[in-house]
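Title: Prediction job returns without error message
Component: structure pipeline
Severity: low
Priority: P3
Assignee: unassigned

Description:
Job completed but the reporter wants confirmation the result is attached to the right record. Sequence as submitted:
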Amino acid sequence: EVPEGKIEVILRVSDRNSNRVWTRSAELNISKLKPTDIGSIRWLSDPSREVITENDTVRISLNIFSFEKGETRLKFHFRYQDKKIYFEKDTILPDKKNQSVEIIIPADRFEEGSYDFVAQVQNVIGGEVTKDIISFKVWKPFFKSKRYFERVRQMAYITSSREERQLLNAKVEEREKIWNEFWESKDPTPGDNVNEFMIEYFRRVDYANKYFSRGSFYEGWKTDRGKVYIVLGPPDYVIDESFDIRQNPYQIWYYYDKGYELIFYQRYLTGDYELQNPPPEVW
């Protein structure tokens, strides 16, 4: 009974004793089903859409609708980083208005990397083809994975050359021990099973990669803004002059406790912001 188009769904929860109220909202796009359609592709493995080869299973469920007479043709495959095709299948489903199909494949049958699951449905006698895609990632266990090397390189701002070489050149069976020893040496509260420094460091790295890679030739953590963000943390205040067509874009980051007023400038309009006045902690 919901009309087609964009709608806002609002969830409101109130505490009757304190009269406190919490509200969350989300926008949805409601579209009319086609004669033969994929109602949804549901990812049933880890909610992060990341699976580990040695332990996990890739589990996907398709909800398929058909308002036409006759059987439904379902074709699907897994596409590895837009190239290699895995587990391609073409199958005929019975004549039903609504049915679910579940696909279960052990994660260790996939190479490490990014994947698209691609599905399409069509009535067997012809007609319109409906296609849908979801993406996910497959990893090896961390200390056997290329993620290990990626994370070690991202630690460049807090490791010496000797520590970095030791971490990168460690044998697989030695990596976990050397990794733990390094981070234990940085742990501000040893003995509580939570390394706050490591968690915060990689939170900053991931933030830099998400927000400072755009328009840059480099990964976000390698940019000037990324390096400052990782080493000094979030600025207290930012002036952003990125949209004035009369001048090159620039930003000013303020760190009040340190007395810093850091100026980032797009010299060549490529998307890279160059730090004009680096503080001693960063360079």
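Comment from assignee: result matches the submitted record. Residues 143 and 230 are 23 Å apart (CA to CA).
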